[in-house]
Each structure stands twice: as structure tokens, then as C-alpha cells.
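User: Study the shape:
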Amino acid sequence: MSNLTAAVTDGVVQQTTSSTSTKSTRGTSELGKDAFLQLLVTQMQYQDPLNPQADTEFISQLATFSSLEQMQNLNKTFTSAQAFSLIGQTVVVSKSTDSTDSTDSKNSSATVQGKVDYVTVSGGTTYLSIDGTLYSTDKLQTVIDSNYIAQQQAPTVTETKLAYDHDDAKDVEVQISLGEEEGEASSFAVLVNGSLIDPAKMSFDTETEKLTIKKEAFSGLDAGTYKIVFLFDDQLETTISDKVSVTITGTKPVSDNGDTETA
């Protein structure tokens, strides 16, 4: 309460100035269920006893409070149910840190990608476990479909136009990647002109990722251009048929019995 007394001199009230400090408080724009209940109790406590509110008004407010609580509980349950469905899925979460270290501060906005090992609920908050570290669901940024990851990590073949001359037959090479991590293949097959190339007529260097197709694989083909098809055994069973072709020229060799050789 402000000071209501002042000095009087010769019948005149003297004006004085005083410094007062104003303390501002900052609240939240959201009304939680606890605040709602406290507001209702305060309203009941300080109502005019000569003109009290009708019972129907309190019942209506209590019903509103009950609906608010049920909605909040439903929201928590729904969030938890969604989180449990993420087990085994690959997700991206923001990497938070409470450290004041300058290095950690720079990395505070970084993200972490990994599979959700398990989901746990503690103190009303739902957490995702990724590589042994817990992240609250409000840190979740992206959920990645497993097929999308497999496609990104699937085997690839470098686009190549091969040339093979019957009159100067030589082995040919193709650059191949078996893929990475979840999308990696353990083996593959190669077709030309609709027929499988005998594995004995091929060799693959895993370090350089170069496939060598021996000249014998083409000796039975007539002159022309053929597509070479690659079949991988990765989880998507990747088939690549539009990256490599071979153009064959020259005269197809003749076998010992006088017939031309066939592939």
C-alpha cells in the first residue's frame, strides 16, 4: 500500500516524490489442471455469501476441470503408445546437453540417428533408448522407414559402356559396390543376353570393388549390343539392368567341330 501521509506547511500539503520498485512476474499462457483447480477453490472461498453462485455453475466448472484432466491423460497415453510403436525403427533426435562447456554448446543442436532399442516412461515423461542413451520424445525429429534406409545403402553399379572385339578378345571390368550396413549384399549374379554368366568366368576384388568378366563369357555372342544385368541378394533383392552394356564386334570364333561357339 502506498504512503497516504504528507507534511503540511502553512496549511499547504507538501508534494513529495518517492521511488518505488515495481516487480514484474512472468507466468505461463497455459492453464494447467492444478492451476484450474486452485482457481476454482479460490472462487468458492471468496464468493459473496449474500449472492452465492448457483450449484450448476460449480458443476459446470468441475466438469470442465474433469474434461481437461482426461484430455491431458489421454495425450500422455497417446504419446506413450506412439513411442512404443517406434521400437526397432530408425529415428533422428536432437542431441541436448546441460553442459556449459563451449564445445558442448556448439554441439547442443546436433542430431543423433539410430534404432530405438526400447521405450521407458519415467516421471510422466516418455524416453527413447538409442545406443544406450535416453532421449525424451519431445526431442524426436524424424522417423525413417527401414526400406528408405535400405535403398540409400543398397548395392550400386557404375554406368559403363563396354566394348568387346572377337578378333582381339580381352577381359572387361565393371565397378560394383555391394552396398553398406543394412543394405549390403553378400553375393550377386550377372546375366548377359538373358543367360547367367558362369561364376568361373568372373572374379571380384572386394577391396577395389572391381568385377572382372573374362573374355570367355562373350565368346559365344554374335556382334551387337547387349545389356548386362546384375542381381544382388540384399534385403531389397536389388536388380540393376540399365547401367552396363557391352558392344560386341568382330567375327565370332568357330569351335573344333566347325560350329560357331555359343555363350
In short: Residues 18-26, 97-106 have pLDDT under 50 and may be disordered. DSSP finds four helices and 16 strands in the chain. The two ends are 105 Å apart (CA to CA). The first helix runs from residue 33 to 45.
